[in-house]
Specification:
The complex is a heterodimer.
Chain A: E1 5-16, E2 19-31, E3 36-40, H1 47-54, E4 63-71, E5 74-75, H2 81-87, E6 92-95, H3 99-102, H4 109-120, H5 125-138, H6 144-147, H7 157-169, E7 175-179, H8 187-204, E8 207-211, H9 215-221, E9 224-229, E10 232-238, H10 239-244, H11 249-256, H12 296-300, E11 306-308, E12 311-313
Parallel strand pairs in A: 3-8, 3-9, 6-7, 7-8
Antiparallel strand pairs in A: 1-2, 1-4, 4-5, 9-10, 10-12, 11-12
Chain B: H1 2-29, H2 33-38, H3 44-54, H4 60-72, H5 86-121, H6 126-140, H7 143-157, E1 170-171, E2 177-178, H8 183-216, H9 219-226, H10 231-260, H11 263-268, H12 274-283, H13 287-315, H14 317-323
Antiparallel strand pairs in B: 1-2
Helix pairs in contact in B: 1-13, 5-6, 5-8, 5-10, 5-13, 6-8, 7-8, 8-10, 10-13, 12-13, 13-14
The chains are: A alpha/beta, B mainly alpha.
Chain lengths: 325, 325
């Protein structure tokens, strides 16, 4: 079966005066229809950029410098801007981080909803309006027929994110890229929003690319997870396997830094050092300066994704001839 | 909204009284009206008699109260130079200035806003760079030079347009004469309107461009793109509206400026408006006219400010919510 989204060796460059910065370096993954693929990593690891590159919304001067993106078999990274526009919203929806800034403050939310639907779907204005009310009800806005006339500032943060979700889903896309959908929200609201996103996408059979740095959200929501480090995928695999048996030393470090209810550690483990800057990514494995288990090969050769139990990890420890297996 | 308008009107009263005080003080400090009226040769008795007749022996604030009372009834005294009631002089001149300022404003908005949007959207195009370079000339060339150059080219060399005056005017009311009704009146309006509007046009162009660049970077524009809305809708439906608040402010203030400071343009083109009247009055210290002009200009500014404030409410729903529960 062709995957819904197939990203192969994606490279994103930022040309600057002092040379080209490679922000995404040969990232490959695929998403099946209806699947939820989580993306975790530190700030600047390239999670959001990967999402932006897929929908063709990289901010200038960033550009795709290599690789390919296929959506149900059709190559979309080379499409003309107008063809790509028709895919955004209609085939791939996007949810952004901060609901306080993602809604146009000067347009009623009903207008923003109907405009999105009328752009992509063959509807009459009356039908679009009826559906807009239904969408508001589906995302849990009470008194939807009246609230549709409201302005964005008349909603709370959590409600606004509900409206954003309605906007992202209203043209019935096959895939939603949710870029830190709960990060800007109150902790008490986060769970509600994630549950809502899960329910709606499951009902519609929408696949989700869930970008977050919250492992808890991933554990609860995602089918598979990709761990990103310095613009590369360090490890990718089923959520349970990655959490219980992390195969990459970086993933292992990440999991160790999450407090658990069972083991009340005095101090949380942390990974020494910090992620390299884009202009100083080490040769070989980008993680090797911080890795306790690095050996000669890690300093020279960059590892590709290697099978490691149930997951795949970009780590030479999993090469057949590795010293410590 | 009504309460807001009322409070703004109340705030205008002290401003007008202050300006009235300054314009009234002109009589006391710029020349001696008694000497001006009686000439150099007069007896002390004649002088005292005149001082009494003019009420100049009254205390300052009584005189000021009389002045304000008269001004409220449209009485500004008699012009020293033309020996006519100031109110009638101004009433005859005001339409010419208002028509010129309106034509200049409409020209500036009709060209400045679309060009600002264009250069903001396509900032990399060579045509945008050309517009920006030309607009720099518009901002930096003084009006008298532009006017003289235009006269030289279109009136003297090409002989397409008249170089001075209002052409044939048609009376609309007892005192309002319009140049819009005849071909000759419209032709006479073109060169002065271009001269007066050029600076505003380039200012609006640059302001709209800067605001567009700002707005196009916001999250809600990114989200609009991510929903696959058309460029046309994003630029004009979503972005332009968000640039309007500062643009309206500047256009409003500039219109006040056009009315108040059209004197250079009016002098160059011998345009029979308020500016020309003011220049001629200053030359011979015609204080009643000067003080009346001062008050009128203050009134124009206050009126425009009020209109601008009310327009904010129309544009931005957030203000309606915070100020008018």
């Amino acid at each position: 079966m062709t995957p819904l989204l197939d990203v192969r060796d994606l490279i994103v460059d930022f040309p600057t005066r002092r040379g080209v910065l490679r922000a995404i370096d040969r990232v490959s993954f695929d998403i099946a229809p209806g699947e939820v693929l989580g993306f975790v990593g530190e700030s600047g690891a390239g999670k959001s950029l990967t999402g932006a590159a897929i929908v063709g919304l990289l901010t200038w001067p960033g550009r795709i410098a290599g690789g390919s993106v296929h959506l149900t078999g059709e190559r979309i990274d080379t499409l003309r801007p107008d063809r790509m526009r028709r895919i955004r919203g209609r085939r791939i929806g996007t949810i952004f981080q901060d609901p306080l800034t993602t809604l146009n403050p000067l347009l009623r939310i009903g207008h923003q909803l109907t405009e999105t639907m009328l752009t992509h779907l063959d509807l009459t204005a009356t039908e679009a309006r009826r559906r807009a009310v239904v969408w508001l009800e589906r995302v849990g806005i009470p008194d939807a027929p009246r609230r549709i006339e409201s302005w964005p500032h008349e909603f709370s943060g959590g409600q606004r994110q509900r409206v954003v979700i309605a906007l992202a889903l209203c043209a019935e896309p096959d895939l939603v890229i949710a870029d830190e959908p709960t990060t800007a929200l109150d902790v008490s609201v986060q769970a509600q929003i994630i549950t809502l996103l899960k329910t709606l996408t499951r009902e519609n059979g929408t696949a989700v690319m869930l970008i977050t740095h919250d492992m808890g959200v991933i554990a609860e929501t995602a089918d598979r997870v990709a761990v990103m480090y310095a613009g590369r995928i360090a490890e990718i695999g089923p959520v349970a396997a990655v959490i219980r048996h992390p195969a990459h030393p970086y993933t292992d470090g990440l999991m160790g830094s999450i407090p658990t209810v069972k083991h009340k550690a005095e101090r949380l483990r942390q990974i020494d050092g910090s992620m390299p800057r884009l202009d100083a990514i080490p040769a070989g494995c980008a993680f090797h300066p911080r890795c306790a288990r690095a050996f000669d090969r890690c300093l020279i050769d960059r590892p590709g994704l290697l099978a490691a139990g149930a997951t795949q990890a970009a780590c030479w420890l999993h090469a057949p001839e590795a010293p410590h297996g | 909204m009504f309460a807001f308008a009322a409070s703004r009107l109340l705030q205008a009263i002290p401003v007008l009284l202050t300006v009235g005080l300054i314009s009234f003080a002109l009589f006391a400090f710029v020349g001696d009206p008694v000497t001006i009226l009686l000439g150099q040769d007069h007896t002390e008795a004649q002088r005292l008699e005149m001082v009494h007749r003019l009420g100049l022996d009254q205390p300052f604030f009584i005189q000021f109260a009389y002045y304000i009372w008269a001004a409220l009834h449209g009485e500004f005294g008699i012009s020293y130079r033309l020996a006519q009631p100031v109110s009638r002089l101004i009433a005859e001149r005001l339409p010419a200035t208002l028509e010129l300022a309106s034509a200049a404003s409409i020209l500036a908005i009709a060209i400045g806003v679309p060009m600002g949007v264009y250069t903001g959207i396509h900032r990399e195009r060579w045509s945008s760079r050309l517009f920006m370079a030309v607009s720099l000339i518009g901002v930096s060339l003084p009006a008298f030079l532009v006017g003289i150059l235009l006269i030289l080219l279109f009136a003297v060399s090409l002989e397409w347009l008249p170089s001075f005056g209002r052409g044939t005017v048609v009376p609309l009311t007892s005192w309002w004469t319009t140049g819009f009704a005849t071909w000759s009146g419209v032709r006479a309006l073109i060169l002065p309107a271009v001269t007066l509007g050029l600076f505003q046009m380039t200012l609006i162009l640059r302001l709209v461009r800067a605001e567009m660049l700002e707005v196009l970077r916001t999250d809600y524009i990114r989200f609009a793109r991510a929903r696959g809305l058309t460029d046309r809708s994003i630029h004009f439906g979503h972005a332009l509206k968000n640039t309007l608040v500062p643009v309206i402010t500047i256009i409003g203030l500039q219109f006040g400026g056009l009315v108040a400071f059209s004197l250079v343009t009016e002098t160059v083109f011998q345009w029979p408006g308020m500016g020309l009247l003011l220049v001629q009055s200053v030359a011979v210290a015609d204080i009643p006219v000067m003080s009346a002009c001062l008050l009128l200009i203050a009134l124009v500014f206050l009126t425009i400010n009020l209109i601008v404030d009310l327009l904010y409410f129309v544009v931005d729903p957030r203000l309606r919510a915070s100020r008018d529960p």
